[in-house]
Amino acid sequence: MPNFCAAPNCTRKSTQSDLAFFRFPRDPERCRIWVENCRRADLEAKTSDQLNKHYRLCAKHFDPAMVCKTSPYRTVLKDTAIPTIFDLTSHLKNPHTRHRKRIKELVRKIFDLASSIDQIASKKDAAEDSTTTNEDEPQLSMEEKAFREYLRSLFEAVVMLGKQSIPLMPLKASETELKPNNFQALLDYRMNAGDEALKKRFEATAVNSEYLSVTQQSQLLDICENTVREEMLMEVRESRFFSLVTGDLVEFANEKHLPLFLRFVNQQNVLREEFLDFVPFDGDEPALVERLEAQLTDRWGLSMEDCRGQAHKATGISTTKMKAVAVLLMEKYPLALHMPCSHMALNIHLANSLPFPNVQVVMETLRRIGAFFQAQSTQDELEKAISTHYQKNEEKGAALKQACIPGWTEQHNVFDVLLDMLPPLLLCMDNIRDNEEGKFAASVVADGYSIAETLADFEIVVTIVILKNVLTFTRAFGRNLQGETLDVFFAANSLTAVLHSLNEVNDNIDVYHEFWYEEAVSVATMIEIPVKVPRLFLRKQRAADVGEIQAEPYFKEYVTMPVIHGIMQEVEDMFSETNLKALKCLSLVPAVMGQMKFNTTEENYADVYRNDLPNPDTLPAELHCWRIKWKHRGKEVRLPTTIHETLQLPDVKFFPNVNSFLKVLSTLPVLKLEDSKSDTASGRLQAYLDSMPPHQWNKSLAMLNVNTHVKHDLDVMVDKYCRLSYCIWSDE
């Protein structure tokens, strides 16, 4: 859709020229000055957000010095730019005045001279463009042009290495004397292939000398990383609302870092979740909150007031810290709703959230099992063990083989599968430990032995049984949360039943624990694991000179009751009244409306996002029209089933409140991405980390590798490098 200039007596639009158009600023004071200079009284009553969204000024109304051309494809304004060039008199030339006859003659003459005027105007514009180009982009000397071409070649090489997950340095530090690093080898290849810019630069360089120092390579990487990040941040700023998502900790140079993702709806109304950076994880919870705020606001120019959700995919000891971070963020920004992440099964999230050592051991062991059976050889050994153990029940064996596909340790029913697989799993580990044919490496044998020792502990068996039974009540609820929009809506309305079931278990904990303990004893007896109280607890009891406790009451007090209470508390925290109100607003999606016979009441929940709507006072009337539109549609018209599908409708723009509402809802991290079946930013990051040994991980290369789909402008990279480091290069 073309942009029209809002200045008085200006008829320019974006389809008629290559002229840049600029939004009114969101800052209220700057926006007020723009409106005053425009002399548009009809704009004075509008808010800065409304003006920013719907009105533009073309570049002709700004002093050329205020307009910056950052690349051949992008023109931006300086932060202090104010429009000052306006035509405020031409509207006085009204043909309906008493001088009509004279004006007719003038008009006729104008038409007669139209072609001449067009030619003169085009020449003048060309001259102005040439002058502007000369002013903004001064003529470069041959040496400067050659230097820029050289930089382009360097940046092309760095981007290629990043996209292909190739580290700049060789595999082993000791090899640096024997061969050049990967970056230098690639430059050699390009020169041999005819890259003249590199040849001229390095033709006098000694054969074995290093082309670029480590410092210079780091500068190149930083600029590539920042350029790619800025491309994504521009889209986030345009969309305004976003959600914050963090991933599992990653360690660089013995320091833990938190992967940071942002979820937003872009200008094409497509939901995106992009990887932006790694944030240092050191310090306490308030320090981490402060660091996240500084990253988002000070460095990236976003506003935490526009954050509408947060999800933290934490595991192990980081879980408790990230829960505290989420609470602190919600205290400061109440609409940054803390929700489960759509990438993680709810039951996995709930188990990870429990801070008990025995539960954390189970979850860590699950992650180790998942990694252990990624190799085909170990997977084949597991399937052989399943066939052996279930040879008298082939149907059960076949079902279990089908269930233990790659990724089974991250599924909703993981604890059910793990319990059924426990006997063949231990048999598999014993076979790998024996390693009679010698086909497993020593490291694989050691890992298998370690996993088997962990599982062959009665406390772990009891914990798995308790987790399986308690999380049975949340399994269907969690599966619906990761389903289609209609499933999520019904999940939000079924939470009361889930909590009722958990409360019923808690009220009758003695009965339930007795059944679950018997199940654990039965499993332990089958795989010859002794039923006993943990050794560490017994030692503490003897030290305190307290009488010995029996196994069943011990596991009730220290496993069953803490797990059920922890799960109930986490469910209530993650699905608070505000969170449920937000999810119930999914009834705005036409397919959900249809399922509810168009008898929905979004108005009851809309107060959560009232301040995010362009015209909140008209929301009830607009919602009524929205329902009528779909209720009385033609028989051939299909009801859109997702937020994405609804936002793609051409006439949704005629419902501005509904449009804004859906965009905000779409950013909630609990809702699945439209392309969740294909690769995601978190999946690409994990693939990068899995593709090379940890000592070769690099934050900047990870950024380039994960975001290969983001367009990068080599000229922008060159400009940034010249501004930052020209002096260093010119001294060489």
TrEMBL record:
InterPro entries: IFN-induced_PKR_regulator, THAP_Znf
PROSITE patterns registered for this protein in UniProt: ZF_THAP
Alphabetized UniProt keyword annotations: DNA-binding, Metal-binding, Zinc, Zinc-finger
Segments forming domain THAP-type: 1-86
The protein's name: THAP domain containing 12b
SMART domains per record: DM3, THAP
PANTHER family xref list: 52 KDA REPRESSOR OF THE INHIBITOR OF THE PROTEIN KINASE-LIKE PROTEIN-RELATED (PTHR46289), 52 KDA REPRESSOR OF THE INHIBITOR OF THE PROTEIN KINASE-RELATED (PTHR46289:SF13)
Molecular functions (GO terms): DNA binding; zinc ion binding
Record Pfam families: THAP
